[in-house]
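Hey,
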Amino acid sequence: MLMSLVIAALAFLLLQTILVAVLSALRPTANIYITIVVVSLVTAPIAFVADRTLLGQALGGDGRLFLAMIHLAVGGFLFHFMTLPDRSVTLRILVELLIAPGQTLSTDALTRRYSVRTMIMSRLDQLSAARFIEIAGDQRIGLTRKGLWFGWFVTGGRKLFGIASAN
């Protein structure tokens, strides 16, 4: 049964990856992160009813719910995997070096490709597009109701798990 669950999880990952790739090709300006979440949520019912196909046996409600939860967890993994090169400074540096001619860059060239300013502006654009913040004409940044709620959620999680700093 364990091997069947591993194969099912891999099938979920393959399905979601293909769908996200196709949708991203069809809608290149769409937010990739939203696409991943939507694909994961929309395809979760498939996982719920795929017990016989994936495992070769019928499961009860709890077992089918477990399959759907595995599917959503795999979607979360895909989401996290896709955000890492953009969110992690270390991984972004590695990506920039990989795509550079000869896989080498000077510090100045790296800074021109990916600076703290670039990182901050990219994050602000994403937060604004997702309606977590509003940027006024005078460049003042304010939280929206959604941003305030999410900020409380993240701050509460950091307190709960004793996370003092992200660095």
